[in-house]
Amino acid sequence: MLARYKIYRGKRPSDDPAPDGVRKDTRKHTHHCLRPSADIVAAYLAAPGPQAWDKFASQYVQILEERFAKSRAPFDELAELATQTDVYLGCSCPTEKNPDVNHCHTVLALRFMQQHFRQLKVVFP
Question: Residue 5 and residue 106: Cα distance in Å, rounded?
Answer without folding.
Answer: 9
